[in-house]
Amino acid sequence: MKYILVTGGVISGIGKGVIASSIGTLLKSYALRVTAIKIDPYINIDAGTFSPYEHGEVYVLDDGGEVDLDLGNYERFLDVTLHKDNNITSGKIYQHVIERERRGDYLGKTVQIVPHLTNAVQDWVERVAAVPVDNTNKEPEVCVIELGGTIGDIEGMPFVEAFRQFIRRVGGHNFCNVHVSLVPHPKTTGELKTKPTQVSVRELNRLGLIPDLIICRSERQINEEVREKISNFCNVLPEHVICIHDRSSIYRVPLALEEQGLAKYFAERLRIQLPTIHTRKLMSKWRDLADRHDNMTKEVNIALVGKYTRLQDSYASVVKALQHSALHIHHRLNLTYIDAESLEPESKVKSPIQYYEAWQELCKAEGVIVPGGFGPRGVDGMVLAIEWARVNKKPFLGVCLGMQCAVIEFARNVLNWTDANSTEVDDKTSRPVIIDMPEHHGGDMGGTMRVGLRTTNFKSGHPSTLKLLYGDVASVDERHRHRYEVNPDFVADFSAKGLHFVGQDIEGKRMEVMELEDQPYFVGVQYHPEYLSRPLKPSPPYLGLLLATSNKLTQYLARGCRLTPRNRSDNESSDDDDTDDFNVIYQSVNLVANGSAGADKPLVEEK
User: Which of 82, 83, 301, 530 could form a disulfide with 366 if both were Cys (CB 3.0 to 4.6 A apart)?
Assistant: First the structure.
């Protein structure tokens, strides 16, 4: 096993996750099996109880792990399926060590940071690195590890010490440290400053780690003079100082690493045998994505009405899923964030300017998405935004809480149940159209939700736009994270008025997919499809929203286009199959967009 540790200096949020993902993508393009681990030094057991404003979104894995959003980057870039143990926190490590101590595993010894906690970190990394994460079901060959936070943080020091020891444990030729640092460009001086990087590397050296590569993040390209200066003060060769300045999109980061010869460097440093003939398929896909992202001229305007709009990372996977779909229909995504509370009548009194601006932004949107969330705040604003979309026949997608709000809106304004509500908002309502799930409401906040991969069955014989977008399949597997659900007692009332629940869980008790008649696209899903969206495989519900917003959905479906769902059988497909699916979708959408494909023409013309 080869290990690549990615550390960061100067500031947090410098882009270590994208760098780590890009390194993995580059190595995977050489047919190497790659896995990834994210280390978060905070004491929390997992990310499940975080406020979105504190740490961004909570990313959910197949096994129900609630983890750091960087694992979403790894899964999207590498197209792998990670597990909850791929996210290590201080809380998990301390809990593991304390449980062992309680069992008497340490035989009466004084339990200390060194060696007990540092050994636990090393054991954990070695164990998780060997777990298969792709469709080959083989042990990975390279493990990319991202150490969260900034070098010098007190909570991260035990992990740095663990990796100092780890080098001796696995051998220096099997371990590489990549240090990501900021090279700021103050406008007052007009020159790039290397001192922060020097201090960061000096601190890393003091703690016992010596960087093999220094990746410098900057606004503009670093010249040779600056590179030589960093090389001299940080004791690395000039060619091992890599510049990744701000790019037009994250899709260009793996390409930038390839252009600077990192694949060859890792092969020599870690003694990896790269194939003599490289087809470059994967990197060609990324280059095509990057070029397409930069050359799009048409726009699609989407309004995101949510509760946590002050921090864009709160909806990181939602935004990525929208971008993936926009790329596939060759449109640039113009996303407007609208605070749901600003749409409520109370806001008109408290902040009239904010109220009118929010409604103005909503009225300019061509499509609306209401994502997930927790708690009563902003629910009435979401309901008002959904009413506007329904009445004006604007394409709409509701995810988790967004679907629940759509049910509340329909009950109030179509069924005339003015007091309809969710028990999360009003537990005394006489029309509880959304109710809690007692088995997932046990008292503790962490780890008690219905979370992880679940199967949704589509109703046989019932027309469904979303079912067609998935490829006209009988069922799909998607990731969930919720405590509340649609009350099955009212389903018949909704169906009688045209709001159909076309997808249910395998027991037929829980409503998973909702669609409204006589609308261009009015869909709600209880699950979170954004977690399984990939740059080359956009999520079907999100793709449907973008297609409907750009007036292409009807033609797209009429031509029989398929977007393969992420079912377990898909793991048997080859890279060639993925490429073919991507080309079919991309070419078919552009034929429709350009008006050059008649009903009697084939989906993809012969070469």
Answer: 301
